[in-house]
Write a structure and sequence with these properties.
mainly alpha
Length: 431
Amino acid sequence: MDISILLATMLLCFLIGMPIAYSLAMAAIVGALWIGIPLEAVMLKISDGVSKVAMLTIPFFVLAGAIMAEGGMARRLVAFADVLVGLTRLRGGLSIVNVLATTFLSGISGSAVADTSAIGSVMIPQMEQNGYPRVFATNLTITSSVQALLVPPSHNAVLYSLATGGTISISALFMAGVFPGLLLGFSLIILCLAVAYREKHPHGQTVPAKDAIRIAIDASWGLITLVIILGGILGGIFTAIEAGAIACIWAFFVTMFIYRDYRWRDLPVLLHRTLRTVAMVMTLIACASSVGYIMALTQMPAKMTAFFLSISDNKYVILLLINVLLLVLGTLVDMAPSILIATPILLPVMKNFGVDPVHFGMIMLLNLGIGLCHPPVGAILFVGCAVGKVTIEQVMRKIWPFYAVMFFVLMCVTYLPEISLWLPRQLQVLH
């Protein structure tokens, strides 16, 4: 009954249009009153939720990604990817450029929405001019942007770490996301090649050597951000928080003094937008912490484990059921609240079935990322349609091959845990 009251309150608040953070807070208050817990305890949990040092990672990486994504980096990465792909002269070269540029930007921005907006605004018109269907270009941009949710510095990996109570290393999650993200990118490239040869898409164009060198040097300034983030963390030079701060400083220096595409008068707008995003995330985390506390008191994780055991005691069957549950959740609720709500409930279940928490993090991020490409809540889908100037109906009719690729990658990541765990183990960041 306790759990029913908690979930019913949360669902009712969602249905009447209350903001998700406030819905979580209201559910926590009602749940506390129902089980007789003082409201002071709820307020303390709200306070504890945002008092973790690791939370400093979020504003730094959000700001660094926003500066690089809006400061001309996307255009330079597209040009650099075009140089690399042009050497192969493959059919469908521009579609491969799209995926490759998104991979590069994902390792800088950490945001799928930013990737979709930045890469889409450059690549979709360019692909259409070269004979690619606009809907195909939009679908490719939308789905390849899911890489940003997996590869470092993924903001959502930080959220997952915080949702576990800080028990999972951010560095371990960053490294765990490298191969799943690259696998997704590689799988989309294979799909692009298959479609290109079936639809007779144009070949890639070789860039003259002089231009190629200039483009590579131009893009290298931004790509150094990747070296700062990954090299610094792995080399033990600085922590994830320090890496975010240094990435911010470097991104600002490159954008404002090297590229000089971004106007100084637009900087306050960018900072305001970043602070608003960070404030929303912090509020969500704070309110989700209180809900997680009430869930723990009602023994929801233990009851969920018992429920799944009543269905099957086979780990692989349970993983399939969890995938279905997360896919449905991802289509109905935005990613950040989904992580914060589902992690305290499902992580203990997965631990009981012998699933590594880092591995489960990758399963969750990929599932919820697929949800972002699907209505009714799909943020990436809506941004992609807006940038690509196509309707959601047009996109949904043609997106199914891309869903199939993402589902294939999801199954690989789910049932082959070494895809996620091998690199963190080798780098000795897995605890």
